[in-house]
Amino acid sequence: MPQMDSYTQYTLELLEPLGAVQTRFMFGGWGFSYGGRMFGLIVDGRFYLKTDELTRPAFEAAGCTQWVYDNGKGKPPVAMPYFTPPADAADDARELLPWARRAVEAAQRAAAKKKKPSGAKKAAAKKAPAAKKAPAKKKAPAAKKKTALKRS
């Protein structure tokens, strides 16, 4: 595993008030996780925080920049759900903390959404058991034909 650069170490120090943040080298950058959920990353020397439909408007209103991934294969760039923190929060742990918490919450919601469909199917299966067929009616035994005995 590559050694952490000074910018990654500095960012990790800024995030100390958040709690036990883990880092992991990935795809040429660094991923930041909290509680087993990835909430941030450093790519090309820039720090990004995870957003979702609830948090994205706040990041956009603060003038944050979205991470756009250019795959270089002639395909259009892909906008990822990660934004830089606001400029005033980039070097101040107290200012960064609320933005990092939003990112952690977005990561938790994303994980909950992934779990929900399979759990919903299981719950539905438990609530609505398969319909059982009614037992087949027993037929009355056929009446035996009496054969007339001829008397001689």
- Which percent range describes the beta-strand content? 15-25%
The number of helical segments is 3
Largest sheet: 6 strands, antiparallel
Q: Would you identify the regions where 5 or more consecutive residues have pLDDT less than 50?
A: none
Q: Provide the residue-averaged pLDDT.
A: 85
Query: What is the architecture of one domain at the second tier of CATH?
Result: 2-Layer Sandwich
**CATH level 1 class label of one domain:** Alpha Beta
Gap between N and C termini: 109 Å
Strand order of the largest sheet: 1-2-3-4-6-5
What is the β-strand count?
6
Helix-strand pattern, N to C? HEEEEHEEH
CATH topology-level fold name of one domain? Yope Regulator, Chain: A
What is the CATH homology-level superfamily of one domain?
Answer: YgaC/TfoX-N like chaperone
What keywords describe this structure?
152 residues; alpha+beta; six-stranded antiparallel β-sheet; 22% strand; 3 helices
Task: Give an overview in words.
This protein has 152 residues and is of the alpha+beta class. It has a domain at 6-111: 2-Layer Sandwich (Yope Regulator, Chain: A), CATH 3.30.1460. It has helices spanning 6-14, 56-61, 93-127; strands at residues 21-26, 29-34, 37-43, 46-50, 66-69, 78-83. The chain starts with 5 loop residues before the first helix and ends in a 25-residue tail after the last helix. The model has no long low-confidence stretch (mean pLDDT 85).
Give a summary of the structure in a few sentences:
With 152 residues, the chain is of the alpha+beta class.
SSE order and pairing:
Layout: H1 6-14, E1 21-26, E2 29-34, E3 37-43, E4 46-50, H2 56-61, E5 66-69, E6 78-83, H3 93-127
Antiparallel strand pairs: 1-2, 2-3, 3-4, 4-6, 5-6
Protein name: TfoX N-terminal domain-containing protein
Domain TfoX N-terminal: 13-107
Region (Disordered): 107-152
